[in-house]
Design brief:
The complex is a heterodimer. By secondary structure, chain A is an all-alpha fold. Chain A is built from 5 helices and no strands. In chain A, helix 1 (14-41) crosses helix 2. In chain A, 13% of the residues are buried. The model of chain A has no long low-confidence stretch (mean pLDDT 89). Chain B is built from 13 helices and 9 strands. Chain B is of the alpha/beta class. Chain B starts with 18 loop residues before the first helix and ends with a helix. In chain B, strand 2, helix 5 and strand 3 (110-114) form a beta-alpha-beta unit. In chain B, helix 11 packs across helix 12. The chains are: A mainly alpha, B alpha/beta.
Chain lengths: 131, 302
């Protein structure tokens, strides 16, 4: 990409940097959840503070997208649940699932984009590649 | 159910032949002389041709790998009956053009273009290639499937691929005493093989380096059919050799002269008769002349 302000020919678009940051934050959330369940399954009470705080970070990163993609009521409710110390773990999980699914819908975590066809059918393959 | 073979009263199996004729027909248990998979390709091509789209299947492979045998088997499956080798089997581009018209007139749905190596990139600027390219531009209207048989498809002239006329490649390899092997590639994969064939030191690695859409085997033709095919094939190949011998001697036929001076064969015949030029040799009812005839006819052109 060309940066026309200073004539450099190599620059990274801000969107790409943002994407990487979001994916990084998502990975942190999954990591904290993993830790939480590990303790819980071992018989400990389980403390989801790390999970909650990391999910809040992910929220800040995605705030504008969440505002646009969710219904106003859902968005406001999510804000309340994520930032209240009294909210239940199950309620927070509901919103985490919603955010995680959204990342797939906006093609950030979607990997199964390749169309499936019968590869033993030559004409099917040709037409799949526009021939 | 009775055996499909005329006058045979033997009980037929699922395939439609009795055990005696099943062996002579040389078929697999599913009733075809080649593995399943290839039939799907041919059915796909049939559908394409119905929609009036030009379609061609290329069969390539080394010498003696069974290309011609497989081409006949494929053509017979496509047609649903034995093909007429006199009308539907052509050796070389000139014969192909003549027989394509014959097939259209007789409403035959498939033609085999054997020894198609004469339509190569090296002759890209020749009148012969231009003529064949024109044929391939227009032949879709005939609704005939062309099966091209040659040792390696990458030598074919580029416009053929620009027009996306070849729809698939069947590469024959590793033929044994009773059967041969083939790999099927789509046009999409053919582009990769074509690219690799130019780069690799060992050309056959280009085929193994690109995974085929399917692999399969094919059986030999029945002995009687095999002899029939051999007769036609050898006669055609002998014509090519004899033609080359005459050319090496510097002799030219009416067709060669017409090609060289860019006039029609009829025009050449008229001028030869008008100038009373005597032929040097007559071979198979064709007259052959010395090359000096070109200068005489060039003068007539002006």
């Amino acid at each position: 990409m060309v940066d026309y302000n200073n004539d450099t020919t190599l620059a990274t678009p801000s969107v790409d940097i943002n994407r990487v940051q979001i994916l990084e934050r998502r990975a942190y959330v999954i990591e904290s959840l993993e830790e939480y369940y590990r303790f819980k399954l071992n018989g400990a009470g389980g403390n989801d503070k790390v999970f909650r705080s990391r999910l809040a970070s992910l929220y800040w990163e995605l705030q504008e997208t969440l505002y646009r993609k969710f219904e106003p009521g859902v968005f406001e409710n999510m804000k309340k649940v994520l930032f209240s110390a009294n909210s239940k773990h199950e309620d927070i999980l509901v919103y985490w699932n919603k955010i995680n699914m959204l990342l797939g819908q906006i093609n950030l975590t979607k990997i199964d984009t390749k169309k499936e066809y019968d590869t033993t059918d030559l004409e099917a393959e040709n037409s799949e590649h526009g021939m | 159910m009775e055996c499909k073979v005329k006058d045979c009263k033997g009980g037929a199996t699922k395939v439609g032949y009795c055990s005696k004729h099943f062996a002579t027909k040389r078929l697999y248990k599913h009733g075809l002389p080649f593995s399943k998979g290839l039939d799907k390709t041919l059915d796909g091509l049939k559908l394409r041709i119905k929609r009036k789209k030009a379609s061609m299947l290329i069969i390539d492979g080394g010498v003696g790998e069974g290309k011609t045998t497989l081409s006949v088997e494929v053509a017979e499956y496509y047609q649903g009956s034995n093909i007429d080798l006199k009308k539907q089997y052509a050796i070389g581009g000139e014969q192909f053009q003549e027989k394509l018209v014959m097939c259209f007139d007789s409403k035959l749905p498939v033609i085999i273009y054997d020894e198609a190596g004469d339509f190569n990139t090296r002759g890209a600027l020749t009148g012969f290639n231009q003529m064949l390219n024109r044929v391939f531009d227009t032949y879709r209207a005939f609704q005939i499937l062309v099966i091209m048989v040659l040792p390696s498809f990458h030598i074919l002239d580029n416009p053929l691929f620009d027009k996306q006329i070849p729809r698939g490649l069947i590469h024959c390899h590793g033929r044994g005493y009773k059967s041969g092997n083939y790999s099927g590639y789509s046009l999409y994969r053919m582009y990769y093989i074509r690219d690799k064939l130019k780069k690799y030191t060992v050309p056959s690695y280009a085929y193994t380096g690109t995974s085929p859409n399917y692999r399969g085997h094919f059986l030999d033709l029945s002995p009687s059919r095999s002899i029939e095919l051999e007769k036609v094939s050898i006669a055609g190949k002998m014509d090519i050799v004899n033609d080359n011998i005459l050319r090496n001697r510097g002799l030219m036929s009416y067709r060669d002269i017409a090609k060289k001076i860019g006039m029609s064969i009829i025009w050449v015949k008229r001028k030869v008769s008008k100038l009373k030029i005597k032929e040097t040799k007559i071979y198979k009812r064709n007259k052959y002349f010395e090359q000096s005839i070109i200068y005489k006819l060039e003068e007539q052109k002006a």
